[in-house]
Each structure stands twice: as C-alpha cells, then as structure tokens.
Design goal:
The complex is a heterodimer of chains A (327) and B (351). Chain A is an alpha/beta fold and 327 residues long. In chain A, 18% of the residues lie in helices and 33% in strands. Chain B has 2 domains: 113 residues, Rieske [2Fe-2S] iron-sulphur domain (Rieske Iron-sulfur Protein, 3-layer Sandwich), CATH 2.102.10; 212 residues, Naphthalene 1,2-dioxygenase Alpha Subunit, Chain A, domain 1 (Alpha-Beta Complex). The longest helix of chain B is centred in the C-terminal third of the chain and has 31 residues. The radius of gyration of chain B is 22 Å and the shape is globular. The mean pLDDT of chain B is 94. Classes of the chains: A alpha/beta (327), B alpha+beta (351).
C-alpha cells in the first residue's frame, strides 16, 4: 500500500563505520520519538545534490525498538550519483529531513521456511528479518550473504550469533561468483525468499527462481534502483522531434536531464518499477543499461523502449522519442 | 467515553461456517478486510483495498485461491502478493496488499490486526466450551451499532437482567444479591451467588430437563472477562443446599454464555455469542431452543445499547457516573486501557 509521505526534521545522532565503505548512521526525529515499523521498512531521506533536493531510500537496520533512533547503513559507491557521497558527508548533529518508515518489503508470516539472500549492502533490510524470525517457534531459517570479502560486509558477527550454521557466507574474492542455480536445491515449495542486493545479482537469482519449479510469488525482493550492469558514464540523448541534444551526466538520470531541459515525460515511482516513464528508442550505440524492473528480460533484449528514471547508456549515445504528438 | 481498542490481540471476525471459498467483507478495528477460505480450507484475511487504485477487493472475485480485483483485474495470491498486472510482462516488486495473521479456533475465525510478529495462537482467548464434546450449543453474530465497550459493560454487570430481561432470566434476586469482584493483569471476574431462591422461569425449565424439581435452587453467575473483549459467563442453578457454592454441581445444570465482541468501527461492533450447556447433550431441539431464547434476550440488549450509543453522541460533553455495580465493567475498561496505553507507548498503532 502506498502512503503519502510525511516529512520530519531530524538530526544525525551518530555515524560509525561498520565495514569498509559502509557507514552506519543513526537518525532521531526532532520530536524525540521514532515511529515503530515492521522489518523490511525503509525511510526516505531528502538529500542535496548540486544544491537540488533529491529523495533517496535507505532500509532501516534491525527491528523497531521504542524510543531508539532509526539506524541506516550507507555504502559509499564509486559510481555514486551523489546520494552516498552526501550521506557520507553528514556529521553528528547535522539536520536532515526524513519520511516516516515505509514498508514495501514486508515479511509474511504464513510459512515456516525462509531463505534470506543478501548481496553487499542488500543486507540492510534483512538483518531485522533475521532478528524477528529467530524468535518465532518452528521456523526453518537460512541466510545466504554474499560479498567481496569480510572487510566489506557489515553485521557478519551479529548474523553469525543469530543464525549459527544457518548463515552461509560467500566471499567472491576467494570463491568467485556465487552460482545462483544452487538456490533451487536449498529451497522447497514452501520456502519464501527475501532478496536484496545489486541488480546483476538479483537478476541472476530471479532468473533461476523463475525457471525453477517453485511459485514466482514466493520470491520477494526490493530494489532502490541504484545499480546497473555498467558504471554510470556521461552520454548524449538526441530527441529529433524537438531538435534537441542533451548531455546526461554520470551523476544524473535521463529523467533529470529531461526536466532540466523542460522535456516532459510522465513518471511516478522513479525507481524503475511502474513503467510510466518509458520512451521509444530510435537508435543507439554502445550498451543500454536497463536498470528497471518493469520490462521483462525479453523486452530489455529488444531494446525498443527504456525507462528513463533509472536506465542509462554505457559506452555510447542514444536517440529517443517522447510521447509528445503536438505540433 | 474511551472508545479505543488494542491492535495486538486476536479478534473474532466470523463464525467458521460463515467463511467459504468466496469473498467476505468485514471491518475490524476500523480496517476493511476481505476474508475467504482457500480451496484446502485455510482461512485468509487481506486488506480490502487494491494496491493500485484502492477499490475494495471484496468487489472482485475469487478464482481458486487468487483474488481478482473487480476494477482492472490485478490478481493477488492468498498472502497478498500481486501475481498479475494487466498490459505488462512483469509485476511491480512492491505490489502487495497487507495480509493479516488469521487462525481458526473454537468455531471462530480470528484475526490479528497489530504487529504480525507478535501473533501467537496461544493468545486466543479460551472459548473451548464452543467445541468441546462435553458441551453442546450454538450461537450467532450480530452487528450492533455501538462501541464494543458498551457491550462489555453490559455483560460485566448482570444487574440489568432484572430490568431488561424481566420475563426470562431476570428477577429481583439478581439485582439484590451481593457479588464479589476480582482481577489480575488480563482478566476481571464478577461472582454472584443467589442461594435458596425460587428459580426464574428460564432456569426452572432447564433444570427440569434433567431432574423434576419445583423447589428452591442455588443460582450462580460467574462473569469472566479476558482483555480486551471476551467474556465467558458461567451460569446455572442446582437444587438448593446440595453443595453447589462449595463446588459440587452434580445436582444442577450448567451453561456458559460465550461472548467476544470485536470492535468494527468506533461506533459499531461484531458481537459473537454462543450458549453451551453440559446437560441434555443429545437433544438438538434444546440447542435450538436455547439459541433462539438467548437471541431474543440479546435483541433486548441490542436495543438498549444502540439507544445508549445515540444518547452518548447526543451528549458529547457528558461523562458516565459509576456505581458499585459497575466495578467489573470498570476493571475491564482499566485493563483494556492499559493494553492500549502500552501499545501507544510503543506506537504499535503506526504499523
């Protein structure tokens, strides 16, 4: 369910580096109380990039505890469009604006078999789920946590304490890429999968799951549209209808470049889910980095349309058309 | 008057026989729900508003175990996940409606409106008399246009029987006999013994189904409230001076009036009741007769309660006065108030 966002003044209470490139930030609303939330929730944070307000979503780490600040964890991304850099620049005492907790990744309690899968910073919404599920009677709970190496993976100790042998760590620096086809063997028809991680990893898991024998709806995942197959680069977008050529800088989206140039498209979710911002692709060079969850793999392969809120071009440029048909 | 209710509690939402493999709309704690049974019999409770444009899903149809929205055909599995969207090949990953923990016990379907992680089926209030083979009975659900707490008040003080139900179960003895009130963290109990009395017509009739007795009886009413809204009333009569007050009820007849009153909106409730007896078990016409009799009695209460709610609304600045007879009702209110305060402290209502 979609709730209207309310915005609250809040203060950065503490910052603590919990892994290489991962900063844990505690935030307290000015009212002095936090709202309780269910595990899987996130808050939206209003951040400043090039003096413009942008909204970023960060999962709440751990279960809700009364009168305790919200905790988020932010990975400093080399390919940051500015969000993680801004969050890392925050100091204790800084004022920010945040939303109420919102949950688009709710944990269901109608099974007794759970398999949580995290890659990298995707661990953040799953830690609270682990804390909740280990308290439930008769629950079979496993977790796969993938990362490059232990130095870059926060919360390993907490998870090991909670899960013991049911925590499977996969370190790609040592073991190479995780073979996601293993997941089908670990799961069964009652298993619910909760998945969060970078796009290529999630795509691989989804592909295996969808080709496997189990219900598609037993795989739940969350994405904030932050990652793609290629690191963001600058590229050019041509719109012949308006005789326009726009530069999309590596730290902005096509949608933002359109807005700066007052090119109108419809949009809503800004995270590649709703499909409203799709435009027609006329021609392109290089690769189209489809970062959305709206188009199917087949549709992405055809490269006829793209979602401008998240998708990009790598190593080339693109010519598109918008839905405008006026004179 | 405090109309509030806790969310972290099991609430009866339907009789087991009401729930079929078809959509049923009910409002619990101000939240519209759509309920149904899966093909395998498992009960399901979902938020009754489509993720997309909020049309009540109860306006749609059930196809197997899948709910199909009656507006644009979005489909939802029994745990609230969207499984189909029109005109696109994928499904928006955040598309779901809330699914509520639900359980079937004691012939009722129960839902948990609060934090799902706390929904432990052991917390369902004991109403085992409703499906225990040593007991026989049946009941109904009535939608009453008053706040659920007014029904709790009504049941916690049976003095009103004398005046509201004078033709059947009420007589001067109920209004005049002394009573004791006890409480603990979760329950409040009102105990009233009327010893050596002439039985009212209803109880005389019941006793004579078991034993031919026209003399005096010892009559009891032991009202047990369990927060926030369940009241089981242990009632009966035994031949006077045969030891019933001391625990020997063999010379009598015993019934349980089972009540659980679910807050629907602030000014409506779903009142589930049943009457179970431990005598004349195989006589099904006795079951029907009792059910119809209690239904007539509760219809009298319903009229009083709805008129009371209207009077409360017409007098928004007025508070109740309380009497000695209200002790049980006031303990019930205080225990429920504490549950609500505790939740507000934790802001569980923000879920």
């Amino acid at each position: 369910m979609r709730y209207r966002n309310s915005w609250f003044d809040a203060t950065v209470i503490s910052r603590l580096q919990v892994a290489e490139n991962v900063l844990q930030i505690q935030i307290m609303p000015a009212s002095g109380t936090t709202k309780s939330f269910t595990v899987g929730s996130h808050i939206d944070v209003a951040i400043l990039i090039n003096n413009e307000i942008e909204i970023r979503s960060y999962s709440l780490v751990g279960e809700s505890t009364p009168n305790t600040p919200y905790t988020i964890a932010v990975k400093l991304l080399k390919s940051s469009k500015g969000g993680s850099k801004y969050m890392w620049s925050l100091e204790q005492g800084n004022k920010i604006k945040i939303s109420q907790p919102i949950n688009n990744f709710e944990l269901s309690f109608n099974t007794d078999d759970y398999f949580l899968i995290a890659a990298g910073i995707g661990i953040t919404p799953l830690l609270g789920m682990v804390q909740t599920l280990v308290k439930k009677k008769g629950v079979n709970l496993k977790m796969l946590y993938c990362g490059k190496n232990k130095e870059e993976m926060p919360f390993i100790e907490d998870l090991a304490t909670l899960l013991g042998d049911n925590l499977i760590l996969h370190l790609s620096d040592e073991e190479g890429r995780y073979n996601t086809s293993n997941l089908i063997d670990i799961a069964n028809s009652t298993t619910q999968i909760y998945l969060c991680g970078p796009l290529p990893f999630m795509n691989a898991v989804r592909k295996n799951w969808e080709e496997g024998p189990y219900e598609n709806s037993n795989l739940r995942f969350e994405t904030f549209g932050a990652s793609g197959l290629f690191a963001p680069q600058d590229f050019l977008v041509k719109i012949p209808r308006f005789d326009l050529e726009l530069k999309v800088k590596k730290d902005q989206t096509i949608l933002q470049a359109f807005q700066d140039a007052q090119v109108e498209v419809m949009y809503d979710c800004k995270k590649g889910e709703c499909g409203l911002c799709q435009v027609d692709i006329i021609e392109y060079s290089g690769d189209i980095d489809h970062r959305d969850f709206f188009f199917s793999e087949l549709e992405k392969g055809e490269n006829k349309k793209m979602c401008v809120c998240v998708s990009r071009v790598a190593n080339g440029n693109i010519t598109i058309d918008t839905p405008y048909r006026g004179v | 008057m405090n109309e509030s209710f806790p969310l972290n509690a099991w609430y009866a939402v339907a009789w087991d026989v009401e729930l079929k493999n078809e959509l049923l709309a009910r409002v619990v704690c101000n939240k519209p729900l759509v309920l149904y049974r899966k093909k395998d019999g498992t009960p399901v409770a979902l938020e009754d508003a489509c993720w997309h444009r909020l049309l009540p899903l109860s306006k749609g149809v059930l196809r197997g175990d899948t709910v199909v929205c009656g507006y644009h055909g979005l489909e939802y599995t029994s745990d609230g996940r969207c499984s189909h969207m029109p005109s696109q090949e994928t499904i928006n990953p955040s598309a779901c409606v809330r699914s509520y923990p639900v359980a079937q016990k004691y012939r009722f379907i129960w839902v948990w409106m609060g934090n799902p992680a706390l929904a432990d089926e052991d917390l369902i209030p004991d109403m085992h008399w409703n499906d225990d083979p040593d007991w026989a009975g049946d009941g109904q659900m009535i939608k009453v246009n008053c706040n659920y707490r007014l029904v709790v008040d009504n049941l916690m003080d049976l003095t009103h029987e004398t005046f509201v139900h004078s033709g059947s179960i009420g007589d001067r003895n109920v209004a005049e006999a002394p009573f004791d009130v006890h409480y603990d963290d979760k329950t409040a109990t009102v105990t009233r013994w009327m010893k050596g009395i002439k039985p009212p017509p209803f109880w005389k009739g019941q006793l004579n189904k078991v034993v031919n007795h026209n003399g005096e009886v010892d009559r009891w009413q032991i009202i047990k409230f369990e927060a926030p809204c369940t009241i089981n009333i242990d009632v009966g009569v035994a031949i006077a001076n045969t030891g019933a007050p001391e625990g020997n009820r063999t010379q009598g007849v015993n019934g349980y009036v089972l009540n659980t009153i679910t807050p629907s909106t602030n000014q409506t409730c779903l009142y589930f009741w049943a009457f179970s007896r431990n005598y004349n078990l195989k006589d099904q016409s006795n079951t029907t007769e009792l059910k119809n009799g209690v239904a007539r009695i509760f219809a009298q209460d319903e009229e009083i309660l709805e008129a009371q709610q209207k009077a409360i609304n017409a007098n928004p600045n007025r508070e109740f006065y309380n009497l000695n007879i209200d002790a049980g009702a006031m303990w019930a209110r205080r225990i429920t108030d504490k549950m609500v305060e505790e939740e507000l402290k934790n802001e569980a209502d923000a879920l």
